[in-house]
TrEMBL record:
Species annotation: Komarekiella delphini-convector SJRDD-AB1
Main location as per UniProt: membrane
Organism lineage: Bacteria, Bacillati, Cyanobacteriota, Cyanophyceae, Nostocales
Stretches assigned to the Mechanosensitive ion channel MscS domain: 266-331
Name of one Pfam family that matches: MS_channel_3rd
GO CC terms, sorted: plasma membrane
Protein name as it appears in the record: Mechanosensitive ion channel family protein
Length: 448
């Protein structure tokens, strides 16, 4: 019984296998794959070429290197191959001479497709698969792609566009140049004349300023101002020859000057102050002056700033606006300068003899000016001394001034001691009027 059941199972399994095999032979592939009908875009067989799919679902349609839109695969033709075919057709149309490149839509209602054509040449076939990919009706999608292609065809290439613009610009410039050639020649001659006249006047100004009692900076400044003024007048004349209105030009220059002056008022103030300083000449190069808390020798006078080298070797740049508004003390404006010291003698000493002794001692110092004569005056009757002020004139340069004052004080002390005139040692002082608290005989060379 078991053997009979086993044989029955084998016969049943064999019968089912034969049945399934027969079904496969009758309808092979049904339910396993779905064939998509491929509609050729043209009579050309390139659209129906069978190429294995590579997994790329969309590819770009390119016009002159710019992507316009994307298309997908159709049947066994993948998106890349389909785009290559369409791009090759577009390149062929663009390679032809300029003509009508309007893209039209030709629908085929019976087949459910639409073709994009330029003249009689088919560029692309829009299928139901494309409509499903972009979720649009076939005719709507075809019209959208046709408009994008038409717009891309009408736009010229970048090189051609740039070339056309350059060509048109050059042509317009040539026409304007020919029309305005007399004005250009007149303006050019005016500029040449201005250049010659300005250079000649500048040289004449420098030559004539040799007789002026001004420094070299002032001479150069005057020549530059004259040179610039001539150029301003010549430029205005040249612009007038070109056809510009003088009233408009002057108004524009006035507004521009106001705007520049307002924005650069501090800088221009320094420059104008420098011009006034060079013209008025309160000091010159090499003078020893004192401006505010700075004292030293003038080493440079520029339009923007004045440079001082102090007695301790520092260089100070002072803006001319500050110099112009400050009190300037010029110690070397005159060749000689008065110095003064105070000497105290005992009440029992003969004042007349002391004054004569001091006078002889002062005149005996080399470097003291005999004219004006030294002035010896009793200035104060202090508690223990009679204070006598001694005034004398020496060189106004700082180092000679300090050295002579020191030598005079030393000579007065020695003369009074030799004459037997008492100067109490406990209260003896020598006060230097108008000098620092001490006298340093080892100053730098700039003080000379």
């Amino acid at each position: 019984m078991n053997h009979t059941f086993y044989c029955g199972k084998r016969r049943f399994a064999a019968t089912m296998a034969v049945f399934i095999f027969c079904l496969l032979l009758i309808n092979p592939g049904k339910g396993l794959t779905q064939q998509i009908p491929v509609t050729p875009a043209t009579s050309q067989p390139t659209d129906t070429e069978i190429i294995p799919t590579d997994g790329l679902f969309f590819a770009d349609i390119i016009v002159r290197g710019q992507p316009i839109f994307q298309i997908g695969s159709v049947g066994d033709v993948n998106a890349t191959q389909r785009a290559q075919i369409v791009n090759r057709r577009i390149a062929g149309i663009l390679a032809q001479p300029q003509g009508s490149r309007n893209v039209t839509v030709v629908p085929d209602q019976s087949r459910g497709i639409a073709t994009l054509q330029v003249g009689n040449r088919v560029l692309l076939t829009v299928t139901q698969q494309d409509a499903q990919d972009f979720n649009l009706p076939v005719e709507t999608l075809a019209q959208q792609w046709a408009n994008q292609l038409t717009q891309a065809f009408e736009q010229p290439p970048l090189a051609i566009d740039v070339g056309q613009r350059l060509y048109n610009t050059v042509r317009q410039f040539q026409r304007d140049t020919i029309d305005n050639l007399p004005s250009f020649l007149g303006a050019f001659l005016a500029l040449i004349a201005t250049w010659i006249i300005a250079g000649s006047i500048r040289r004449l100004t420098l030559f004539g300023s040799r007789q002026w009692e001004v420094d070299r900076n002032s001479k150069i400044l005057v020549s530059r101002l004259v040179y610039g003024s001539v150029w301003v007048i010549g430029t205005v004349v040249a612009l007038g020859v070109l056809g510009l209105d003088f009233a408009t030009l002057v108004g524009t220059l006035g507004l521009t000057s106001v705007a520049i002056g307002f924005s650069l008022r501090d800088v221009l103030s320094n420059y104008f102050s420098g011009i006034v300083l060079l013209a008025s000449r309160p000091f010159r190069l090499g003078d020893q002056i004192m401006i505010q808390e700075f004292e030293g020798t003038v080493t440079q006078i520029q339009l923007r700033a004045t440079t001082l080298k102090t007695y301790d070797g520092r260089v100070v740049y002072i803006p001319n606006q500050e110099v112009f508004s400050a009190i300037v003390t010029n110690n070397t404006a005159c060749t000689h300068r008065r110095s003064s010291i105070m000497v105290g003698i005992d009440y029992e000493s003969d004042i007349t003899e002391a004054k004569q002794t001091i006078n002889d001692a002062v005149l005996g110092v080399e470097g003291v000016e005999p004219d004006p004569k030294p002035e010896i005056l009793v200035r104060e009757l202090a508690a223990s001394t009679v204070n006598i002020e001694v005034r004398f004139w020496v060189n106004s340069r700082r180092l000679p001034f300090l050295e002579m004052t020191s030598q005079v004080a030393q000579a007065i002390k020695e003369a009074l001691m030799q004459a037997g005139i008492d100067m109490p040692t406990d209260i003896y002082t020598v006060k230097l009027l108008g000098l620092p608290p001490f006298i340093d005989n080892h100053r730098v060379k700039d003080e000379k």
